[in-house]
Structures are given as structure tokens and as C-alpha cells.
Please model this.
Amino acid sequence: MGVKGRAVGGCVVNNSMISNFLLFSIAFVLGNSVLAWLPWLPSNTVLIILVLGAISVGFALKFTRRFQKTGVCLLGLLLSSSWALGAAAWHLSHVFPKSLEGKPIVIEGVVVGLPTRWDTLQQFDVLVDHIVQAPSDWPHPGKITLRWYGDKRQPMKLLSSGERWQFTVRLKRPRGFANPGSMDKEKLAFIRRISAEGQVVKQQATFLGRETGLVHGIHHIRAALKENIQALLSDPEKDGWIPALVLGTKEGIKPEDWRTLQNTGTAHLMAISGLHVGFVALLCFQLFRFGWAYLAPVRWIEQCPAPLVGAGGGMLGALAYAALAGLSVPTQRALIMVACAMLALLRRRLIRTWRVYWIAVLGVLLYDPFASLSIGFWLSFGAVGMMLYGLQHRFRSSGWWWTYGRPQWIAFVGLLPLSLFGFGGISFVSPLANMLAIPWVSFLVVPLALIGTLLTPFNTLLAKSCLLFSNFNLTILRRILSWMSDWQWAFWSYSPSEHPLALLCAIVGVVWFLSPSGMPARWLGIIWGLPLLLAKPNGVAFGEATVAVLDVDQGLSMVVDTQSHRLVFDTGATFGKHRDAGEQVVVPYLRHAGLQRGTDLVVISHVDSDHVGGLSSLLRGQTVRALMTSEPEVLRHKVPEASHFAEVFPCQAGQSWDWDGVHFEMLHPSVDEKITKRNNRSCVLKISTAQHSFLMTGDIEAPIERQLLASKFRGQLSATIIAVPHHGSKSSSSPGFIRQVNPQYAVVSAGYLNRYRHPRPEVVKRYQALGTHWISTVDAGAAVFHLKRVEPDLGVESYRVNNRHIWSAN
Model:
């Protein structure tokens, strides 16, 4: 009996081979996804079993046709999981040892990648060769990220890829904020294979020479082009979008610009996307094709037709552009798809689009098995996959809707589950914004920017004209997108269910909804999306409260939720010129917990930078109805956004109110007190339910603790949980104060390896001597306490414990 198939380019393609390839590809993706769900790395024995299983299944498929499809799926799962877990084990074997964290050490290594600089700060990656003094302590060094702070009086030399240096550094394992909604910096470091992070502690670094090689040469070219672009632009500080589009360097895009791009669903355009790589490949294909057809001798054309030359030119153009972009996931995908298409032209064979798509998926995961941990991987391949699925097997139409509107509608609907799951919201203006932005960027901005960049070494005047005109077009687009971003309904924030089955149901629903018109009851696809929207944890009941002590490094921020009200106590610190805890922690947490109702009251205990640093971002990021602090006038002066409030209320002892059956009472400071030290002016707030209470102390020190013990509020100091005063400083938490509070739990907010060495060991011992459970945000991440109305037992959640992953810091 013959096997059904079809002839393609002189070969018979078996239909069974096509289906097996599809099954293998899907299984390979699923097997690779094991990285995202495992709480820790399996032992080497498990890895060996996976490899042996893959070999056994491969031999079984070679010698038998029974259970072929099942075997192909199993082979894909075993191969991909063993490949991914093996890569993870190799990387984790290079992670910096905890025994050396925080200690000054001397290292030697080679600068890799493209260093970045802000004022007197320089950040760069180094591939470490060894530790100079004690190489046995870190036998397998890896890639690290360093910050080097220069002197304002002496300009800092920008380092270059390939340079070998000896640095004295202080390192730690990659560490990020561990909160619901926060960006997972530890996962990002894992994806980038970063083994440690830290800073240069001595200015006297030693230059040891220069390495050569293709990769370093590419980065030299990228650095030179970046300097040329910035030199020709009118304002390099504000015009960071052109380098992002040409070179994939994103540090020049400001946080407010990222918000605009997110709200309009156009963030994918501001890095080098697959669309841009495809455009460059098509442009080079046409240039080489027509150039060869009109300029080459006839005998050459007969031996090598113009389309073949065009295919080679298109491949070279795509490869060069992807190399300049640093080979991000979208460029990898586009490069592989372009390579498949061009190779098909060179071999004069027909290749189906779906096969190209799955070859690209497999190619990216083979090249980088950690790529699937990035939301960009799923958005990139998800957008292309939904386009292919949504536009195939349809009757063609020449109207504007089919050409421009329908692809955007398909991408919008198809990526709804991933947008909700990954970003906690939906941009309703995304289809309209992309209909405008995609052709604008692809045909007006990117070509001029590329031409101007390529001309910078040859003709400065013409290059500057192209770059300025490209930037002018981009400025107009930015203003339009900013205007659309300000629409009240532009971006809808919603915290969906985080269960993976809910996401899977939503994806099934989208595929069903976008199926061809012959599919019956396509509207049922909407029902499949309901678990993602409706399967959420129960809200806070009447008479109960949830208190989240957020992980904001060396600072303090807490969020209190009752049934229908929300209070934010402090907002964390600032981190450099453009970042703060409000933007990176507090606002993302509020979005995750449900942003729609806004915040009723923000209490700033005192106006130190580690407590008020994130307030500006919080006020910009959501609705705040009232502000309270111990220093109203100082707050207005320090945070300009606070001046929009008609009144900033002073916190005073004796103030009290009730929200949803939960009692709030201010215990400090008193109206007539004259306090000189700012820490001691901190607002002290107690929150009480029928069974439990939480005492928020800010940064009060021992004199105020003694004063509270002698005041009429002594009886109110007793609490189930205490936020440890002043991050566990030895100047606070006096023994008498701790005995009077007598907490079951003490939670301290402090930074990992902070320079103040908070919390102090003697303070920890004081609490533990009373049998108090000690919780630190260093170990727990965000600590969430559920103050119940009836149950005597507290509900306590540790974000790091509940969200343990292979890449987790501890």
C-alpha cells in the first residue's frame, strides 16, 4: 500500500511526516516550558534518566511504526526538557558563591556586550576568567554585571567590548524585588546567564589588553554607531528611540515613554522587531535582485538568476540587522523565518508558512533554551501564529479592512490572554494605534534611521539630515500615541487568574473564536475565556483586613486592604535618577491586587527618601483621594505632585476611623510635641480587627518608644504583628517596648546586604527571645498577613516561598 503524499521540488513529502513534525514541535515547546514551573532544579540523576529516555524513544521510533505519534510527542518532551534542564544546571554551576557575597575581591575578565552610561555611572557585563586571590572559592566563574561610579571632576572612559580588565569588586547573587506584580529581575538575570551583580569598589582598575573576535567586532561597530547617532541627534538625552530602533538599546527610553507604549500596545515597535528585520530583508532582496538583473552580464544571469542573488542579499541584510540588534528573541525568530524563505528560493522549493513558523520556534529554543521564560517570546510567536491562523483559509478581499484592519483585530484578540496574564491589562486602543504606528515606523522612521546610521562614517551632513527627519517623524508619532494613551479607556487594568489552566482555557477560546467561518458556534470561544477573568481569589470580607509588607529593598511600603477601602503606608525609596519603588513595586502591586478602586489614603510616616521616594510615581499611576504625613509642608516641597491636593492632613495621636468594620488609630506624634529628629516624627498607626492587630511604627527610635510606654496609649501598643521600627536598627526596638507590644509576628523591611547592616542581630534576638516569629523581606519577599474577624490563627503568606523557581535567589 502506498503512502499518501505530495511532490515538492522533486521530493515526495509524506503527510505523516508533516503531522509528526507538527506534533514534535508542540511537544518540544511544552517540554521546554518545564523551566517556568519547577520550584527547584532536579538532580543530575533525573537529567540522566531524561537523556536515556530520549535515546531509547529515538531508537524505538527507528525500528517500529507502532505508536509512532505517541513516540514522537514523547521524544519532543524528553529532548526539550533535558536540553533546557541541562542548560539550567550548567548556568547554576557558575553562580556566585554566597560565602563571597559582599566581600571585596579582585577579578579578571573580558568586557562583553554593549556597555551603557548615565552621567557618572557606567554599567557593563564582564565574562570572569578567575578570582585573583582565591580561585578555588569560585572555581567556575560566569558572566557578571558591574556598575562603576566615576568622579564628576574627571570624565569616565566608556569601556569597550573585548577589553580585558582587572577590577576590585563587591558582588552578590542577582537579586530583585519579590512582590506580586513586580518585574522578576532574578528571572531576567537567569535568562541573560548573569551569575552575579555588583560594583567596582576602587577606581584604580587595571587594563590588561584587548581580545579579538567576531562577536567583539560586532559590538565595537554597535558602540561606534551608537556614538555617531547620539552625536548627530539634537538632544541625545531625549531622543533615545532612534538607537532603540536601530541597535536595540533601550536605556534611552524614559519610564513615561514606556507607559505610553504599554497603554497603546505599541511597545513591540520600539525595539528591533521581526517586522523590521523582515522589511530589511525584503528591501535587500529587491535591491540585489534588480541590481543583478540590470547590471550583471547576461552570461552571469543565465548561470545565477536574479532571484537567487536577491535571496542571498536578503539573507545577508537580515543577518547584519539582527546582529546589530543583539539577536533578541523577535530578531532570532525573524532571522530564522527569513533564512527558511531564502533557502527555499535558493533551492527552488516550495515551503509552507506553518513549517517555517515551527522551524523558527525550534531554532530559537535550540539556540536559547531560556527564551521561553520571557513574555517577549510568547508575544512574538503568538502574534505571528495568530496572524497565520486568523488569515488562512479565508476568502480574499481587496478592501481596506482586510488589508489593514483585520490583521490588527486578529492580533488584538489573539493576544488578549497573554496581555492579561503578562501585563495585567488590555490596551483597547492597540488596534487603532498599531494601524497607524506600524506603517509609520516601518516606512517613515526605520528606513531613514537605517540610511542615516549607515551614512554616518561617510557623509555627516546627509546622515544627520536623515536621522533628524526620522526623529521628526517619530516625534509626531510619539505625540499622537501620548494623546491616545491619555484617553480614559485606553488601558484597562485587570488582575486575572494566575492559574496556568485558566490561561490555557483562554487560548483555546481565542483559537475557537478566530476559527474559519465554517466552524459552528464560534461565539463559544468567549465562554472559554471566562476562567481567566473570573477565577480569582475571594476578596476581603467585612471586618477583616489584608496587610502586605512589600519588598522594596532598604525602605518601607505597606498596603492595607479592607472590604472596600485601601491604605498605603509609605512608598519606598528612589533608585537612581529615573527609578523608584513606587513605579517598580507599589503601583504594580496595586494593579495586581485590583487597581480599579484607587487608594483612599496614603500615609507617609516621615519624609525620608526611603519612605517617600515612590510617592510621585504612585500619584501619577493611580487615583489617590487623601494624603497624610507628619510633615505636610515638607512633603509638599519635596514631592511636587502633592501640591495638587487641597490639603495634606497631619497625622496626630488620637485620630481614629473605621473602614468596613476595621478600626484604625494613630498613636504618634502628639500635637504639642517638639521633635527635632525626623525619624522620631514618624506616624505610628495601629490597625485592629476583632481578633488581630497590626502596629506600623515607621522609623521611631528608643526615646519615642519610652514616651509611648509612658503615655495614655500604652494599652493600645499590644499587637499581633509589628512592623519592626527603623528596619531593625539597634537604636530602636528597646526591650521594654517589645515586651509591651508582645507580638506573635515581627516583620522587618530591609535591603539584602544593605550598608547599614539592618536588621541588627541583637534586635532579632530580642524578638525571638519572646517567642516571636521573625519575618524579613530579605528572605520572604512580600509578606502578606490576613487579619481575620473570627479565626484566632493568622493567615501569613511569603511571596518567595509560594513562588519558588529554579532561578530564585534563595
In short: Residues 430-455 form the longest helix (26 residues).
